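G., the chain you wanted modeled:
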Amino acid sequence: MLSASVRTWAVVLTLSLVTAMSAGCGVGPDPGIADLEQALAIGVPEAGDMWRRAARESLEPRLTLAAAGDVIFDRGVKTVCQRLGRDWPLGAVAPILSRADVSFVNLETSLARGGEPIPGKGIWFRSDPEFASELKKAGVDVVTLANNHVLDYDEPALVETLAALRESSVAVCGGGLNIDEARTPAVISAGGVSIAFLGYSELADIFWTYSYPRSFRAQKARPGVAPMDEKMIVQDIRKARALADHVVVSFHWGEEYVRTPNPKQVGLAHIAIDAGASLVLGHHPHVLQPVEVYEGGVIFYSLGNFVFDQKKPDTVESMIARVSFSPREIVSAEILPVKIEECRPRPLRGWAAQAALDRMIRGSARFGTLVARVGDRGLIVTPGSGASAEPQGIGERIP
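Predicted structure as tokens:
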């Protein structure tokens, strides 16, 4: 026997499917009902106020966001592209990214031909500017530049990157020609819902040699990225809330190859949600980290690699976060498991998807977050999904 909260979740899922079919995704259960508004007029099944509330809310505007991790087109990815073509890296996930109203990634490389490597750094990424158009073709609408590689080839390469993205109509957050521009949100509207994207890097103040102490932090008259400064972040989120229905904050943070967020990550994520953000997206560890639902917001502590050339088992595990917003709240949040093969993220199916999801389910449960395995995806139980969280079991009881 399923518990009351699981039955509630199943009812909401069923209603969502009915709504989707009435919206043109299939044939509704009653061909005499033309649409959901007509269904409401004649009455929904007698299952309490929850049915009516969920049905009415399903008529609200919706925006679906697909978000993923670190993207480069240099080093090993460049080698693969020379053999298989420029569209290879994003080819398998382009349908998912394109179907979303808005898609977002961390662009962890400059897109430039100019510039010189910053002395002493050791690892430098610079990719062909034409990959800006490949991002757009694959459905990517906005990128964060707040990371520790976009300035690998110094200011000229960052300036060229900004121009290439602008020419391809890919919006930018977290980086700019000065600190004001780096802190300015990228605001995108679709489906009657608006989102403001902000990006910050924990590594903005690092430099690699005293002979050339160039950090990545943007200044009043110097290009760069937005630093992970708590006071600045809270101010920016509050300003962005006046511009959009929701604020999404990207943080480049944490420890590389560590699958658990550190206390600083957790504390800052909570501060961001408390300040008014709806969603936090983490990057930099190169591996996946858990998901947390906190005060109505959702935190993906690390989305891992996405288009990347690392080959260790943990670094090829990836995911796409798919989040649906109404003007008021996050309606649903999902994990779409992905594996990177030959630098290319590929959606997982069947037992491979289940195995990948089980690891995220266990890790997220430590943060009190419930993830239900539904076929090849993981549904994160949020207040907007209509279910109350139980301590265990939903991931295995939902088929």
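Residues 177 and 223 are 4 Å apart (CA to CA).

Shout if anything looks off.
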